[in-house]
């Protein structure tokens, strides 16, 4: 199973470094991807450093370019994270450009969905991001966060909702694999995930979970580790 942890922007930098050090000392039987505020060189032994964002292809300021990320051996980048869309008014067109830049540089995008509730609206949201994209025979990760959970900062999702969205996304992406040059995909569940939420994600069929910056010490993250260690590490 995949676990993606995003430190976002308010977690103390020293705490981030301590977290990265402490987690490396533990046995992990799952694939862990960690997005610190400032990308580190991806040299850790039992997990990967990933990027919270990737710049547009053209010259810009204040964002990480694909060239810099690749120099740090980073292989994954978030595309269209909900905070960027809600707080920075990032449009679908901009997300589309970031996605193209990611794929053009042989990086794996983590496409974030959750601006709308309900499977049909979620699919419409994804289609608008993927419109006319060339997947170049590569893989993508699609992360769905429950809108209700993100708004309330609690595990407010329902099993019925998360399952309905999963089934719709899985059907749509399976068809893309058959009918386009998309190689493969993984579906990840987010929205204030707890150890119990991992069990829900597994039961529905999600390939992993997306977790924010709530667990600022590895000791607090331990229940998540224990729940994930019961799942076979992604091959």
From TrEMBL:
<dbReference type="GO" id="GO:0006096">
    <property type="term" value="P:glycolytic process"/>
</dbReference>
<dbReference type="GO" id="GO:0005829">
    <property type="term" value="C:cytosol"/>
</dbReference>
<comment type="pathway">
    <text>Carbohydrate degradation; glycolysis; D-glyceraldehyde 3-phosphate from glycerone phosphate: step 1/1.</text>
</comment>
<comment type="similarity">
    <text>Belongs to the triosephosphate isomerase family.</text>
</comment>
<keyword id="KW-0963">Cytoplasm</keyword>
<dbReference type="InterPro" id="IPR000652">
    <property type="entry name" value="Triosephosphate_isomerase"/>
</dbReference>
<dbReference type="GO" id="GO:0004807">
    <property type="term" value="F:triose-phosphate isomerase activity"/>
</dbReference>
<comment type="subunit">
    <text>Homodimer.</text>
</comment>
<dbReference type="GO" id="GO:0046166">
    <property type="term" value="P:glyceraldehyde-3-phosphate biosynthetic process"/>
</dbReference>
<dbReference type="Pfam" id="PF00121">
    <property type="entry name" value="TIM"/>
</dbReference>
<dbReference type="InterPro" id="IPR013785">
    <property type="entry name" value="Aldolase_TIM"/>
</dbReference>
<keyword id="KW-0324">Glycolysis</keyword>
<protein>
    <recommendedName>
        <fullName>Triosephosphate isomerase</fullName>
        <ecNumber>5.3.1.1</ecNumber>
    </recommendedName>
</protein>
<dbReference type="GO" id="GO:0006094">
    <property type="term" value="P:gluconeogenesis"/>
</dbReference>
<keyword id="KW-0312">Gluconeogenesis</keyword>
<dbReference type="InterPro" id="IPR035990">
    <property type="entry name" value="TIM_sf"/>
</dbReference>
<dbReference type="GO" id="GO:0019563">
    <property type="term" value="P:glycerol catabolic process"/>
</dbReference>
<keyword id="KW-0413">Isomerase</keyword>
<comment type="pathway">
    <text>Carbohydrate biosynthesis; gluconeogenesis.</text>
</comment>
